[in-house]
Amino acid sequence: MRSGTRDGRKAMPPPPPTVLVVEDDPSNRALLVHLLRAEGYRVHAVADGEAGLAAVATAPPDLILLDVGLPGVDGYELTRQLRLDPRHATLPILLLTGRTAVQDVVTGLDAGADDFIAKPFAQAELIARIRSALRLRRALVGMEAAHAVVTALANAVAAKDAQTERHCERLALTAARLGSRLGLPTADLDAVTYGALLHDVGKIGVPDGVLTKPGPLSDEEWLLVRRHPEIGARICAPLESFAAFGPIIRHHHERWDGGGYPDGLRGEATSLGARIVGIVDAFDAMTHHRPYRRALTLTQALEEIRRGAGTQFDPGLALVFVDELAVDGAVLAEPTPVGPFALLAQHLHRVDPAGAKGLRAS
Ligand SMILES: [Fe+2]
């Protein structure tokens, strides 16, 4: 995490995490409150399940330490009720219990608890488990924020150019699928998915009249359109994960023979992620109608990809891509979420399986 702001001022340290303790035994409750405060946590303590639910509704904590054997709504039921609310999906819930038989543990995990702490507990272990659960929570919250930013940008491109709206979503799914066929590690798959989703984000900087022009473009207008990879890379540069997917945005229009733009890179000088998005992008454009030309059939488009192998496209990659689609055109179009797309799909309200099936529809 960065410690300073861009203008050099020191950032305020984040407030300490808040722990909600739900425990009916007064002496245990007092002990937990004392322990946690001594560790620097802010602590709120209540004696039963109903009060626990009310406390979460009023001021959601960063973690709940929950006794299982409570009067009324017990720890399992409270956990179940909290997990029904998507706002509490990543809220760490640690169950404190004297019952550690396998069936009790299974019941707790099924209810949605994150961890178990057996009573009587060792203080050092309790604190270590809380620290670890909060660390995981911070990572998840950070990921959610990153996904929200990427989604907002993707939606901005869609709003600008309705024609490419489904195109970016299809591309993210298809590129991730091709990447996973190639056996890319998870981090690279994530980068390919983000890069595919945002590859045309630079079109935000291209005038509307040019983007939506029904006829062929003039030379001057082409120059404007060809700036979109650079503009896109500049827009995304402040994002934390830019180093991973920025080159995909900048280089998705490079060609294997060096005749692409903006940098005229040749062969493997263009990253594999950019080569994947480049080929999937070209294929998707071929198989969908544009105002200035009709869509090609699947067979015609595959022939075009084959013809472009070694000139426009990485020949090895073109082979894998054509093989996949020639065997079964639907393989790459299945809407199964891959990598970060499962999370992204929750934010992208327009994503649905029909969008992914567009590959076959033309
Ligand atoms: Fe593009």
Give me some keywords for this one.
362 residues; alpha/beta; Rossmann fold; Hypothetical protein af1432; 2 domains; 16 helices; elongated; disordered N terminus; disordered C terminus; binds fe (ii) ion
Give structural notes.
There is one protein chain. The chain is built from 16 helices and five strands. The protein is elongated, with a radius of gyration of 26 Å. It is of the alpha/beta class and 362 residues long. It is 54% helix and 7% strand. The longest helix is centred in the middle third of the chain and has 38 residues, at 123-160. α3 links the parallel β3 and β4. The protein has helices at 26-38, 49-58, 75-83, 102-111, 123-160, 165-181, 186-198, 208-211, 219-225, 228-236, 242-251, 272-286, 298-308, 315-327, 341-347, 353-361, and strands at 18-22, 42-46, 63-67, 93-97, 115-118. It has a five-stranded parallel sheet, with helices on both faces. It folds into two domains: 18-121, 3-Layer(aba) Sandwich (Rossmann fold), CATH 3.40.50; 149-361, Hypothetical protein af1432 (Orthogonal Bundle), CATH 1.10.3210. It binds fe (ii) ion.
Number of domains: 2
> What does the largest sheet look like?
5 strands, parallel
Q: What's the SSE pattern?
A: EHEHEHEHEHHHHHHHHHHHH
User: Uncertain runs with pLDDT below 50, 5 residues or more?
Assistant: 1-8, 330-362
What is the CA-CA span between the terminal residues? Answer: 46 Å
Class based on secondary structure composition and strand pairing: alpha/beta
Judging from the principal axes of the Cα atoms, what is the shape?
elongated
| Strand ordering within the main sheet | 2-1-3-4-5
The CATH architecture of the largest domain can be named as Orthogonal Bundle
What's the Cα radius of gyration? 26 Å
